[in-house]
Amino acid sequence: MSSDQKEVLRKFNINNRRYIGGKSELLAEIFKAIPPKYLKGKFVDIFAGTGVVASEAAQYFNSVVVNDLLYSNLAIYEAFFGTSKFSKSKIIKFVNYANIEMKKDKTSNYFDKNFGGKFFSKTTARQIGFVRNLIDDNDFNLNRRERNILLASLIYSADRIANTVGHYEAYRKKNEGFKEFSLGLIEPLDLTKSEIHRRDANELVREIKADVFYIDPPYNSRQYSRFYHVLETLTKWDNPALYGVALKPLPENISEYCKVGAPEAFADLIENINAKLIIVSYNNTYNSKSSSSKNKITLEQIEKVMRKKGSTKIKKIEHKAFSAGNTDFDNHLEYLFITEVFK
Q: Which domains does the chain have, with CATH numbers?
């Protein structure tokens, strides 16, 4: 086996991402909070982010629903949570070919022209762009699921070596430590029933009935579509014009939960949920020293809305917050609001 083929053995599980607000370390506490009588039905993660909570829910529930506004997360969900068939041998053949040919090809592309020498080395950015073009060329006759598995694999592989502190608001100015790129493979989940959406959460809740809703909205002014714009561009591959030091495209998918109207948006969301149980995750960054990290919704506002919806318990969990390196959180807590909805 060649060294290129050995690289294929790099596997990514769904939680192998750096992501603001990721809940990988809180999964046990979240699912411990769900009374057994609510298990086995439908579970909805309406702000699914990395998808790790829904992935865990798949072990307890008959059906999971995931939703997020980001195009990159949609591709990831369709790769991990999709139920349509795919050829593993075809995907491995693609990865083997890509890992060999990307090192031979010296053609410049959109990715290295814009992100090379910044978020990635010039060589690595060119290789990432080569693989992205190869996916769209579709010489391997990929179906939709196979295409998304490869897109998700590319996202995970690129994110692992990105010259950042975990998001794409900025890149490290000292870039002597650029890492080499190789295309690995995600490990799709084995599900029989799922729903995947890229919708406004407040619209989608009006159309879904479920046993359990898990709610983990953004709470501060940091827009996820801006923080992960490089991965959004890599997914959409629409060659947008870029602006500013961080090389961002024009704004899109702007969340109301990152604006002053967040409390009203949250109240509307909860009021229109049709479920037996609602769990809301909330972290207390309202005391953050960074203005962009301060919560737009207070603890008291959430509690008032949840108690109006049903019988509510509050669980406090000590949890170290994600930090980009500029923000300190003292006595950081994660709150879980567990609400049994009034009948």
A: 3-341 (3.40.50.150)
β-pair partners for 243: 248
d(CA 77, CA 52): 10
Would you say residue 315 has pLDDT above 60?
yes
β-strand 310-318 against 333-341: which pairing, if any? antiparallel
For 24-70, write each residue's pLDDT tens digit. Answer: 888 999 999 999 999 999 999 999 999 999 999 999 999 999 999 99
Q: Could you tell me the sign of the dihedral formed by the alpha carbons of 243, 246, 249, 254, in that order?
A: negative
Instruction: Write down the pTM of the prediction.
Output: 0.90
Spell out the residues 6+ positions from residue 182 whose beta carbon is closer than 8 angstroms to its own. 7, 10, 99, 157
List alpha helices for the chain, DSSP H. 3-7, 27-32, 52-57, 71-80, 88-104, 110-115, 122-137, 144-161, 201-204, 224-227, 229-236, 262-271, 299-309
pLDDT band with cut points at 50, 70 and 90 for residue 9: low
Q: Are strands 209-215 and 42-45 parallel, antiparallel or unpaired?
A: parallel
Cβ 114 vs Cβ 132: under 8 Å: no
- Per the CB < 8 A criterion, the answer to whether 47 and 201 are in contact is yes
